[in-house]
Every structure is written in structure tokens, then in C-alpha cells.
Amino acid sequence: MFFDLPNFVVAIDGSHIRIAAPPYTAVDYFTCYQQHNFIVQAIVDGKKHFLDFASGSPGSMCDARVLRNSTIFDLAEHNQILMGPSVQIGGNDIKLNLIGDSAYPLASWLQKPFPEAMRDPEEIAFDKALSGARVAVECTFGMLKNCWRILGKWLESKISFANKITVTCAVLHNFCLLNQDEWNDEIMTLEIKDMKATRMLQGMGMTFEVC
Known about the structure:
The chain is of the alpha/beta class. It has one domain (8-204). It is 32% helix and 20% strand. It is built from six helices and eight strands; from the N terminus they run βαββααββββαααβ. The protein has helices at residues 26-29, 63-68, 71-77, 121-147, 159-178, 197-200, and strands at residues 8-18, 37-44, 50-58, 87-89, 92-94, 97-99, 110-111, 207-210. It has a six-stranded mixed β-sheet with strand order 7-6-1-2-3-8. Strands 4-5 form a two-stranded antiparallel ribbon. A hairpin with a 5-residue loop joins β2 (37-44) and β3 (50-58). The radius of gyration is 17 Å and the shape is globular. The two termini are 30 Å apart. This is DDE Tnp4 domain-containing protein. It is found in: Nucleus.
């Protein structure tokens, strides 16, 4: 559970990694930031572990398209992950859900904020809780780039090798957390209650892939 959101167990987001312009496909990687990037899509739990990490989508792609092209999308659509028990709220069964921002598509397994223009007070309160919970993935990306500073720089290697560097840093991030290494948490202020995502996200485990 993230904050007081029942059965909302993990958060999803993307982050950009700056690279040198690749030959022949530079336009695909050119972004609104006026630089060449590829995208990392990650799913994290409340303890800041990466549960799924897909690196290498062209920087010009939107988050929704990156998700739809990912392995995790097919798994979720075919009910092969997020298979923990549902909870009853107001006569409705609430299944396990991912939390995403407004860039993601709404799905039975993925919740996003309500459109701002038409929210009532209850929806505003829900969105506030959702936003607070989603900070987990932003903090995890912050930890990753703060610890492995190479990811905050311009990777001049070929895309294939830059992807391997990025995935390796994510694996090391999890390794350090699982071995309870000390972290410099000056930029991390998040506290999340009742972290059970790793246990509840049945069938998912931890997966790392280069797109």
C-alpha cells in the first residue's frame, strides 16, 4: 500500500538518459529538451527497488507509447502480473494496481490522476494521494543518478553500450539496497507506509532489459 491507497503497490515512470546523436536514427532520439536521449521505463516499490527496468526507447517517444511497446504491458494485459488478492471497498473489488502520472493510459491495472478541469473534491483528494505515492519512482531515479553519476552525463558510447551501462547501474542500485549499503539520502525525503509491493507483485520479480 502506498500511503492510504489500498492495493496500489508500485509506481511507474520514465527518465531520459542523454546520449551522443546516433548515426542514421538521430531524429528518433531528439527530444523537446533539444538533445538526444533514450528513455528508461521503470517500475519501483516503496523501498526504492527496481522491479522492472527497460532501457533504450528513443527519446522522441511519449511515455504511453513506451509502455505499450514494453514487455510489462503485455504481461499486465494478459493478467500475468499483479495477481495478488483484491480488496472490497464500497462493494467494488479493487485489484492490485500500478500508479502512473497523467501521461499514461488508464487501465484496469494502471491508475492515473483525474483530468484537472473536471475534478470534484473527492477526486482532488484522490489525486493528491496518488501524486504523493508516485513520488517513490521519482526519488528512485534521483537515487540512481545521484549515486551513478555517469547517468547524469552525456554518454558518448554507442546506444547498445550506453543501454548496458544504464541497466548495470540499475542492477547495482538494487544490489546495494538489498545488501543494506549506506546511501547519501540528502535529496530523499519520502516516507511510505506498509511497503509490501515486492511480496504482492506475484509473477513479476525483478526484470531488466535493453529495448
